[in-house]
Amino acid sequence: xxxxxxxxxxxxxAVAAFAAACGSSSANDANSANTAEEAGPVVVKTAVAKxxxxxxxxxxxxxxASDAESDVAPTIGGKIAQVNxxxxxxVKKGDVLVRMDARDAEIxxxxxxxxxxxxxxxxxxxxxxxxxxxxxxxxxxxxxxxRDGETFDIEDFSQVISVRAQLKLAExxxxxxxxxxxxxxxxxxxxxxxxxxxxxxxGQLREARSNAAVAxxxxxxxxxxxxxxxxxxxxxxxxxxxxxAQVAQARKNVADNVILAPISGYVSERNADPGEYISPNxxxxxxxxxxxxxxxRLKIDVPEQSIAKVAVGQSVSAQVSAYPDRSxxxxxxxxxxxxxxxxxxxxxxxxxxxxxxxxxxxxxxxxRITQSKPAPAVMVPAVAVxxxxxxxxxxxxxxxVANERLVQVGLLENDFIEIKQGVGENEVVAVDNLDKxxxxxxxxx
Length: 445
Fold this sequence. Notes:
Layout: H1 5-39, E1 42-43, E2 46-48, E3 50-54, E4 57-72, E5 78-83, E6 90-91, E7 96-100, H2 103-144, H3 158-183, H4 188-256, E8 258-260, E9 265-270, E10 277-278, E11 288-303, E12 315-319, E13 328-335, E14 345-353, E15 364-370, E16 375-381, E17 386-388, E18 391-398, E19 401-413, E20 416-421, E21 428-430, E22 443-444
Parallel strand pairs: 1-22
Antiparallel strand pairs: 2-21, 3-16, 4-11, 4-15, 5-7, 5-10, 6-9, 7-8, 9-11, 11-14, 12-13, 12-15, 13-14, 16-20, 17-18, 18-19, 19-20
């Protein structure tokens, strides 16, 4: 076969170019090898991968909520004089949030105190009346010779008893003279004298009984006086009780003009301004909303197939996007009795300590729920793992050479991290100068 001169020239040029390229590549490889030999091995510190028993867990999602939330509202109507808070303010339980104009309430308190003093004086007067009524009763009892509790009857009156005895003798004497008069043994005048004596004693008996009735009325009147006086004391004391209740209510009204924080927490809503009139009867009488965030509730949605893995008392670890490198510990404290019929999940609540108020109600969290039975895992120092984009690598050191391994990481436990795949037990891994390492790099320990 014959080729034209021009075609041969092209072939020769191509071969020359290829030879030049090969020569250049060989020169570069030689230069790289010489540079590596001149730099020497990379000095690294190492650690041994160990198998440890670590807690097992499963992941779920949850939402943070405040542990307690309180709407602050007035209990009485009035004009706001001072507001001591704003949205975002931290308040302690018992701090003064709002002061209202208390002048009217203080006037009513003074009026109630004055009425109480008058009621107490009325009690003193009523008790003095009881003492006087009791003294009158005692005088009447002494005069009649009776004691407390004794029943007084007209026929038991001493004068009645004496006259009745005399009358009995007089009637017996009169009967005897009647018999003697019929036999002629006494004169008519003697009989008439005995009759007159009997009739006189009858009059005296009527008078004695009348006097006894007067005495009984005196006793009854004195006893009624004591009873009335004691009733007046009871009424006066009841009036004191009513006045004391009015004073207590008036004092409460004065105190209610100072509205205090019911819980410690952050103010999430403010609806109060000085000069504004407020009343508990008006719609939306809320002055502020306070949320407690020192401890947060983490409401976790547990899938139906995992509900047997959750129990009160289990530890949880939560992570939020705002702090991706930090975990927040907590404990499951309660479980709802039924599943959500739409999502088929069970809501459980954990309490999460919130130091410094880093976490906020409403944040979404990824939750790890620790299981009771630990499992073996290969653990290496967390600093041994190098992130390269979306992958993680570990440099295993063997025979003075770094071997790059793609790894799958798991649970972070203190300063160690679980290697689910890529490193075996007792293998040696580099823990520093990772940025200087690569697959096949010579190292020195």
